[in-house]
Write a structure and sequence with these properties.
Layout lengths: L2 H21 L2 E13 L12 E11 L4 E15 L12 E16 L12 E13 L3 E4 L2 E4 L17 E14 L4 E12 L14 H8 L1 H7 L27 E12 L8 H8 L1
Antiparallel strand pairs: 1-2, 1-10, 2-3, 3-4, 4-5, 5-8, 6-7, 8-9, 9-10
Amino acid sequence: MTKTLRHILLCIVVSFTSISVHAQNWEFGGMVGASNYHGDLAYNIVPKETHPAFGIHMKYNFSPYWSYRPSVIHGKISGSDANFAEYRLRNLSFESEIWEVNNALEFNFVPFGSRILSKNFSSYATLGLAVFRHNPKTVFNGERYALRDLRTEGQSNKTKYGLIQLAIPFGGGVKYNINKNLVIGFEVAWRKTFTDYLDDVSTLYPDLQDQRDAYGDLSANLSDRSWEVDGVGEPLSSAGDERGDPEMKDFYIVTAFTLTYRLTPIACWPKYKREFLFK
Protein backbone atom coordinates (compact mmCIF):
# COMPACT_ATOMS: atom_id res chain seq x y z
CA MET A 1 0.00 0.00 0.00
CA THR A 2 1.38 3.43 -0.93
CA LYS A 3 2.08 6.01 1.73
CA THR A 4 -0.52 8.39 0.24
CA LEU A 5 -3.26 5.76 0.41
CA ARG A 6 -2.32 4.93 3.99
CA HIS A 7 -2.58 8.62 4.90
CA ILE A 8 -6.04 8.83 3.28
CA LEU A 9 -7.23 5.77 5.21
CA LEU A 10 -5.75 7.19 8.39
CA CYS A 11 -7.71 10.44 7.91
CA ILE A 12 -10.92 8.47 7.35
CA VAL A 13 -10.36 6.45 10.52
CA VAL A 14 -9.59 9.57 12.56
CA SER A 15 -12.69 11.31 11.19
CA PHE A 16 -14.99 8.43 12.04
CA THR A 17 -13.40 8.14 15.48
CA SER A 18 -14.03 11.84 16.09
CA ILE A 19 -17.66 11.49 14.97
CA SER A 20 -18.16 8.47 17.21
CA VAL A 21 -16.75 10.29 20.22
CA HIS A 22 -19.21 13.17 19.72
CA ALA A 23 -22.03 10.78 18.87
CA GLN A 24 -22.04 9.38 22.39
CA ASN A 25 -23.20 12.82 23.55
CA TRP A 26 -26.47 12.43 21.62
CA GLU A 27 -29.66 10.67 22.72
CA PHE A 28 -32.92 10.12 20.87
CA GLY A 29 -36.20 8.98 22.36
CA GLY A 30 -39.83 9.42 23.19
CA MET A 31 -42.24 9.97 26.03
CA VAL A 32 -45.70 8.84 27.01
CA GLY A 33 -47.70 10.30 29.85
CA ALA A 34 -50.53 12.65 30.71
CA SER A 35 -51.48 16.32 30.45
CA ASN A 36 -53.68 18.50 32.63
CA TYR A 37 -54.63 22.13 33.17
CA HIS A 38 -54.84 24.79 35.89
CA GLY A 39 -56.81 27.98 35.33
CA ASP A 40 -60.18 29.74 35.66
CA LEU A 41 -62.11 26.48 35.25
CA ALA A 42 -59.87 24.48 37.60
CA TYR A 43 -58.19 26.10 40.61
CA ASN A 44 -57.05 22.57 41.59
CA ILE A 45 -55.89 19.71 39.38
CA VAL A 46 -58.89 17.51 38.54
CA PRO A 47 -57.83 13.87 37.95
CA LYS A 48 -60.75 13.08 35.63
CA GLU A 49 -59.68 15.94 33.34
CA THR A 50 -56.34 14.19 32.73
CA HIS A 51 -55.60 13.15 29.12
CA PRO A 52 -52.90 11.14 27.31
CA ALA A 53 -49.80 12.96 26.07
CA PHE A 54 -47.05 11.80 23.70
CA GLY A 55 -43.80 13.20 22.40
CA ILE A 56 -40.42 12.69 20.77
CA HIS A 57 -37.15 14.32 21.69
CA MET A 58 -33.43 14.44 21.12
CA LYS A 59 -30.78 15.39 23.63
CA TYR A 60 -27.22 16.68 23.51
CA ASN A 61 -25.15 16.17 26.67
CA PHE A 62 -22.73 19.06 27.03
CA SER A 63 -21.21 17.60 30.18
CA PRO A 64 -22.03 15.10 32.93
CA TYR A 65 -24.25 17.83 34.44
CA TRP A 66 -25.82 19.78 31.56
CA SER A 67 -27.96 18.70 28.59
CA TYR A 68 -29.97 20.46 25.88
CA ARG A 69 -33.25 18.77 24.90
CA PRO A 70 -35.50 19.88 22.03
CA SER A 71 -38.84 18.03 21.80
CA VAL A 72 -42.25 17.94 20.14
CA ILE A 73 -45.22 17.07 22.38
CA HIS A 74 -48.92 16.52 21.76
CA GLY A 75 -51.50 16.50 24.53
CA LYS A 76 -54.99 17.61 25.47
CA ILE A 77 -56.37 19.74 28.28
CA SER A 78 -59.91 20.34 29.53
CA GLY A 79 -61.86 21.89 32.38
CA SER A 80 -65.42 22.30 33.59
CA ASP A 81 -67.26 24.29 36.22
CA ALA A 82 -69.26 21.14 36.92
CA ASN A 83 -66.23 19.86 38.88
CA PHE A 84 -66.60 22.58 41.55
CA ALA A 85 -69.78 23.23 43.53
CA GLU A 86 -69.08 26.96 43.87
CA TYR A 87 -68.75 27.38 40.08
CA ARG A 88 -71.70 25.20 39.12
CA LEU A 89 -73.97 28.11 38.14
CA ARG A 90 -71.39 29.62 35.79
CA ASN A 91 -71.51 26.32 33.88
CA LEU A 92 -68.61 26.90 31.47
CA SER A 93 -66.44 24.14 30.02
CA PHE A 94 -63.74 23.64 27.39
CA GLU A 95 -61.31 21.19 25.83
CA SER A 96 -58.26 21.87 23.70
CA GLU A 97 -55.54 19.98 21.87
CA ILE A 98 -52.01 21.17 22.60
CA TRP A 99 -49.11 20.97 20.15
CA GLU A 100 -45.82 22.06 21.70
CA VAL A 101 -42.27 22.62 20.43
CA ASN A 102 -40.05 22.71 23.50
CA ASN A 103 -36.41 23.70 24.02
CA ALA A 104 -35.20 22.83 27.50
CA LEU A 105 -32.03 22.56 29.55
CA GLU A 106 -31.50 19.73 32.03
CA PHE A 107 -29.25 19.92 35.08
CA ASN A 108 -28.22 16.62 36.68
CA PHE A 109 -27.72 16.77 40.44
CA VAL A 110 -25.02 14.07 40.19
CA PRO A 111 -22.68 13.34 37.25
CA PHE A 112 -24.56 11.23 34.70
CA GLY A 113 -23.82 10.05 31.16
CA SER A 114 -22.12 7.55 28.92
CA ARG A 115 -18.67 8.32 30.37
CA ILE A 116 -19.82 8.07 33.99
CA LEU A 117 -19.32 4.47 35.03
CA SER A 118 -20.10 4.86 38.73
CA LYS A 119 -23.56 6.54 38.56
CA ASN A 120 -26.58 4.83 37.00
CA PHE A 121 -29.18 7.11 38.59
CA SER A 122 -29.72 10.86 38.81
CA SER A 123 -32.43 13.33 39.63
CA TYR A 124 -32.53 16.49 37.52
CA ALA A 125 -34.17 19.89 37.08
CA THR A 126 -35.38 21.26 33.76
CA LEU A 127 -36.15 24.76 32.49
CA GLY A 128 -36.87 25.96 28.97
CA LEU A 129 -38.88 27.93 26.46
CA ALA A 130 -41.75 26.48 24.41
CA VAL A 131 -44.05 27.52 21.59
CA PHE A 132 -47.47 25.87 21.63
CA ARG A 133 -50.75 25.94 19.75
CA HIS A 134 -54.11 25.62 21.50
CA ASN A 135 -57.71 26.01 20.33
CA PRO A 136 -60.37 25.88 23.09
CA LYS A 137 -63.64 24.25 22.08
CA THR A 138 -66.86 23.28 23.81
CA VAL A 139 -69.78 20.95 23.17
CA PHE A 140 -73.26 22.46 22.78
CA ASN A 141 -76.33 20.50 21.70
CA GLY A 142 -74.11 17.62 20.64
CA GLU A 143 -71.87 19.76 18.41
CA ARG A 144 -68.30 20.92 19.08
CA TYR A 145 -67.55 24.63 18.52
CA ALA A 146 -64.29 26.61 18.48
CA LEU A 147 -64.78 29.29 21.13
CA ARG A 148 -62.36 31.96 19.93
CA ASP A 149 -64.37 32.39 16.74
CA LEU A 150 -67.48 33.14 18.85
CA ARG A 151 -65.83 36.03 20.78
CA THR A 152 -67.50 34.95 24.03
CA GLU A 153 -66.20 37.97 25.96
CA GLY A 154 -67.08 40.42 23.18
CA GLN A 155 -63.56 40.54 21.70
CA SER A 156 -62.95 42.65 18.62
CA ASN A 157 -60.66 41.64 15.77
CA LYS A 158 -57.85 43.49 17.57
CA THR A 159 -58.44 41.97 21.00
CA LYS A 160 -58.99 38.33 20.01
CA TYR A 161 -56.45 36.11 21.73
CA GLY A 162 -53.84 34.25 19.70
CA LEU A 163 -53.85 30.49 19.27
CA ILE A 164 -50.03 30.29 19.13
CA GLN A 165 -48.41 31.23 22.43
CA LEU A 166 -45.18 31.06 24.43
CA ALA A 167 -44.68 29.11 27.64
CA ILE A 168 -41.90 28.48 30.15
CA PRO A 169 -41.66 24.75 31.01
CA PHE A 170 -40.12 24.04 34.42
CA GLY A 171 -39.95 20.96 36.56
CA GLY A 172 -37.80 17.93 37.25
CA GLY A 173 -37.47 14.21 37.17
CA VAL A 174 -35.35 11.14 37.65
CA LYS A 175 -33.51 8.91 35.17
CA TYR A 176 -31.74 5.58 35.24
CA ASN A 177 -29.26 3.83 32.94
CA ILE A 178 -30.65 0.43 31.97
CA ASN A 179 -27.40 -0.19 30.08
CA LYS A 180 -24.87 1.88 28.13
CA ASN A 181 -27.45 2.69 25.44
CA LEU A 182 -30.89 2.85 27.11
CA VAL A 183 -32.03 5.40 29.70
CA ILE A 184 -35.48 5.45 31.30
CA GLY A 185 -36.92 8.38 33.20
CA PHE A 186 -39.91 10.03 34.80
CA GLU A 187 -40.61 13.77 34.63
CA VAL A 188 -43.17 16.31 35.83
CA ALA A 189 -43.05 19.77 34.23
CA TRP A 190 -45.44 22.71 34.48
CA ARG A 191 -45.93 25.16 31.63
CA LYS A 192 -46.23 28.79 32.71
CA THR A 193 -48.10 30.45 29.85
CA PHE A 194 -48.52 34.12 28.98
CA THR A 195 -52.20 33.82 28.11
CA ASP A 196 -55.33 33.62 30.27
CA TYR A 197 -57.31 32.08 27.43
CA LEU A 198 -56.34 28.41 27.43
CA ASP A 199 -59.93 27.92 28.60
CA ASP A 200 -61.54 30.88 26.74
CA VAL A 201 -62.30 32.51 30.12
CA SER A 202 -60.51 35.60 31.41
CA THR A 203 -62.31 38.89 32.02
CA LEU A 204 -65.94 40.10 32.05
CA TYR A 205 -69.30 39.14 30.64
CA PRO A 206 -70.38 41.25 27.64
CA ASP A 207 -73.86 42.70 27.24
CA LEU A 208 -75.64 39.62 25.94
CA GLN A 209 -78.00 41.54 23.70
CA ASP A 210 -75.09 43.38 22.08
CA GLN A 211 -73.36 40.04 21.78
CA ARG A 212 -76.38 38.52 20.08
CA ASP A 213 -76.72 41.45 17.69
CA ALA A 214 -73.02 41.49 16.77
CA TYR A 215 -72.09 37.81 16.69
CA GLY A 216 -75.31 35.79 16.75
CA ASP A 217 -77.35 33.64 19.09
CA LEU A 218 -74.70 30.94 19.45
CA SER A 219 -72.13 33.44 20.70
CA ALA A 220 -74.52 34.84 23.31
CA ASN A 221 -75.66 31.38 24.41
CA LEU A 222 -72.06 30.18 24.98
CA SER A 223 -70.89 33.41 26.61
CA ASP A 224 -73.19 32.83 29.60
CA ARG A 225 -74.32 29.21 29.97
CA SER A 226 -75.92 29.60 33.38
CA TRP A 227 -79.32 29.34 31.70
CA GLU A 228 -78.65 25.62 31.05
CA VAL A 229 -78.46 24.75 34.75
CA ASP A 230 -81.53 22.98 36.07
CA GLY A 231 -83.91 25.43 37.71
CA VAL A 232 -82.30 28.57 36.19
CA GLY A 233 -83.63 28.95 32.64
CA GLU A 234 -82.32 32.51 32.03
CA PRO A 235 -78.76 33.92 31.86
CA LEU A 236 -77.69 35.21 35.27
CA SER A 237 -74.99 37.67 34.18
CA SER A 238 -75.15 41.39 33.58
CA ALA A 239 -72.72 43.30 31.38
CA GLY A 240 -69.45 43.81 33.27
CA ASP A 241 -69.89 40.96 35.74
CA GLU A 242 -66.74 38.97 36.43
CA ARG A 243 -66.41 35.95 34.12
CA GLY A 244 -62.79 35.07 34.96
CA ASP A 245 -59.67 36.36 36.71
CA PRO A 246 -57.26 38.06 34.27
CA GLU A 247 -54.58 38.50 36.94
CA MET A 248 -53.66 34.80 36.95
CA LYS A 249 -52.38 33.33 33.68
CA ASP A 250 -53.19 29.71 32.84
CA PHE A 251 -50.90 26.70 33.26
CA TYR A 252 -50.79 23.24 31.80
CA ILE A 253 -48.81 20.28 33.06
CA VAL A 254 -47.17 17.30 31.36
CA THR A 255 -46.20 14.21 33.38
CA ALA A 256 -44.36 11.54 31.42
CA PHE A 257 -42.25 8.43 31.35
CA THR A 258 -39.32 8.74 28.95
CA LEU A 259 -37.12 6.26 27.10
CA THR A 260 -34.00 7.40 25.24
CA TYR A 261 -31.37 5.64 23.17
CA ARG A 262 -27.84 6.90 23.66
CA LEU A 263 -25.47 6.69 20.69
CA THR A 264 -22.17 5.01 21.55
CA PRO A 265 -18.82 5.14 19.76
CA ILE A 266 -17.71 2.62 17.17
CA ALA A 267 -15.64 -0.18 18.65
CA CYS A 268 -11.86 0.03 18.08
CA TRP A 269 -10.51 -1.73 15.02
CA PRO A 270 -8.77 -5.06 15.60
CA LYS A 271 -5.03 -4.88 16.16
CA TYR A 272 -4.13 -6.47 12.84
CA LYS A 273 -6.03 -3.73 10.94
CA ARG A 274 -4.26 -0.98 12.86
CA GLU A 275 -0.91 -2.59 12.06
CA PHE A 276 -1.91 -2.81 8.39
CA LEU A 277 -2.58 0.94 8.27
CA PHE A 278 0.41 2.20 10.19
CA LYS A 279 3.30 -0.08 9.22
